[in-house]
Every structure is written in C-alpha cells, then in structure tokens.
Predict the structure.
Amino acid sequence: MSQNFNADSAEKTSRLWGGRFEKSTDEMINDFQASINFDKRLYREDIAGSIAHAKMLAKCKIISDADAQKIIDGLKKILAQIEDGKFNFSVELEDIHMNVEKALTDLIGEAGGRLHTARSRNDQVALDMHLYMRRTVQEVQDLILELQKSLVDAAEKNLSVIMPGYTHLQRAQPILFSHHLMAYFQMLKRDYDRFSGVYERADIMPLGAGALAGTTFPIDREFVKTELNFSEVYMNSLDAVSDRDYILEFLSAASILMIHLSRLSEETILWCSREFNFVELDDAHCTGSSMMPQKKNPDVPELVRGKAGRVIGHLNAMLVTVKSLPLAYNKDLQEDKEGLFDAIDTIKFCLKVYAQIIAGMKVKAENMRRAVEEDFSNATDLADYLVKKNMPFRQAHEVAGKLVHYCIERGVYLKDLSLDEFKTFSDKFDADIYDAIKAETCVNSRNSLGGTSTAQVTKQIEIAKKYFADIVTA
C-alpha cells in the first residue's frame, strides 16, 4: 500500500474517518453533504456532551485522568474561541463534531484523539440535538408566557370594552373584547403544555449507543445522564440513534402554535382595516406604501400569517423524510436540522413581536360599541327574554326573527322600536325589554362558567395570573 500513497491519499487521511479511503472526496460532494453551515449552532451542546463523555471515560478507566483533564481544558478553550468569534469552521470537516475534535487534537495533541473512544457521530449528534431541544423548548415557553402576559394585560385594561362576537364572520352576539383576547391566552396555554411534552421526550440520553449497537468499552451511561441532567437513558441503542420523534413533536407543536398566531393575525388585520376600525397598530409595527401616502399596512401580522405555512412545511418535510427509513442511522437524518432550526427561529420571532404588537395596540372602544348597537347581535337575548316569560324557545326564536326582519325593512334597530311595536309581535313584551337588549345586559347575563360576563372574564384573568405565579414557583 505504501507505493500507492500520494498527495491525494495524504489529503484524505487528514479526515478523521479517512483511513478506509484512497481518494479524497469530490469538492462538490463535500459541499453537498457538509452540515457545518447550519449545525455549528450546536457548538455549546457538542462541547458540553464531549466534556461529560471525557469525564465518564476517565471514571471508567478507559482513558487516564490526565488525558481527560487535557481534553476538558482544551474543549473549554475552544468554546471561548467560538464565542469570541475567533474559531474558523471548515466545510471540509463536514460538521460541528469533527470541527471541534480536529481543533482539540491540534490544540492538545494525542490526548485529543482519545475523546471519540466509545462513541460515534451517530450517538453524538443525537445527544447534541436532545440537549439543544431541551434548551430551545424552555426558550420558546418563556416567549409564550410573555405573549400570554401581554394578552392578559390588554384584557385587564379593556375590561369594559364590548365588541361583536362573530360566527361565519357575521356579527353574532355581544362579547367583551377581553373575553376574545383571553381565548388566545387559552390557546397559548395548550401550546405551552404541548412543548412541555416535547421537553419530556427530548429529556432522554442517547450517548453510549455508539453507531447503532452499543460499545465494547465498559462505559457508564448513567453517569453521563446525571452529568447532563437527563431524566432517562435510551434502553435500545438502535432507537437511540434513529429516534427523531421529539423533533417531529416539536415541529407539530410549532405548527399548531403558528396556526394560533395566524388566526390572531387574521383578526388583527381585519380589526385594523377601515371596514372594522376596531384597533390601530403602533407605527413601529406597520409600514407604508411607496405609492399611496395614506396607507398604514399591517405587514407584521401578515408576515406572521404567511410564516405559518413555512413552519407547517417543515413539519411535512420531516414527516416525509423519516417515514421510510430503516434502522438505524441514515444520512437522510441530517435533514432534520435546517427545517427545525428555521422553524425555531421563526416561532421565536413571531412570539416576541406579537407580545409587542398586543402591548402597543390602540383599542377603539367606541367603534366596537357602535358595531354592537347598530346591528342585531342582541336578537338571541330578545328570544331569551321571551323564554324567561314562559314562551317555548322555538316560538321565541321565530318572534325574534320576525322582529329583525321588521326592523331591516324600516332601517331601524331593535332598540329603536316602540313598546307598542314590540307588543304587535307578542303580548309578553314589557318596558323591561329595553334593558334586556342593552349591550351590557347581553354581556353580563352570560354568567355561565367560561362565559363573557365581566365577572367570568375577571375570573379568567385571576386564574391566568395564578397560572403565571405557579410557573415561576414550579
């Protein structure tokens, strides 16, 4: 073999896996398969995992304490270099793992080559992703809480504001604007809980699985679990290196979160249109038109609405990627990162900006009130009034419908009718009908648990504040 050794083989042997190969990898293939341009964000997790691994190797007498200390000191220096922007990442070294290991070997010599004992890049990248996912979930949950707090603050400040509630995008019944905002609080609460489930599935330690079958060395996986604060260890090495369920779950939770933000965006866009004119967004969250000087465009909510499709697309891509993979590791799994990282960046921005949008939004209470009063969203309350006077609901529903038709033909509203006109439709009407169909009465009479009355919405806000306090003390 020595007679075949040349510059080309010298280049290939500089790679950490190059012993088997006699030709260097085509540069186009290098670029195609390299992941360093996106997985370098895993550097903290990669180094933390390597430090824990080195400690375990020394504890188990697989490497010497002296070598372990050199490795740990070297890794800490590399961490500082990366965070100071002084580390040169190489595409030729493919990924974050090999970039760090090569730098370590260059820095401390032979001891650096002992770090990869009893592990594979397969279980190493799995460990990095589990560590990264745990940290990311907590960051996302913190941002969810910030948006929830903005919603609760806005609900408390606008507790007296009445607006039309809608079904089929048609005015249906009067509700408190605060009640509407608190609906999104509840959606986000479910999102928070879903991400807690993602954390639980990410909180399993894969290192020690090796490439797929474990290792011949007498390692201590429980030690690494404790060192990195994991709750469990994967009990099957094939599963450990091939499992991407927690990534699928994250993307699923992220997609549902973005659907909620997209729905909120759609309503925000409608509310700040001239046709609704219920709210006005802060200038900081809008743009103008290059042609039409009067325009104030809700670009940020529109972008959030659009980015929902982007995140959902990443979920679909990941589902398709893993659906037919045989056990254990396949290079296809490298595709788990770019879409995930983009989804993470997207939802973090959307949550952060929406907390600001809600906090800066001007509520036009008079316009909302006018929309309630110049409409027939109190027709159900009129029917309920008759039911409470012992008329069967279906008959009351018909009377109310005929009264609405009568008003539409005359260009008036229910509140404009005289008592004599009411009595033309039923002798059960009395002077108290006017109070029964007032917006405040319509809202506050809906005092069933979870209803839109001031008392019930106040209770929702109080429960939300306790929820925040419980999370802080958990």
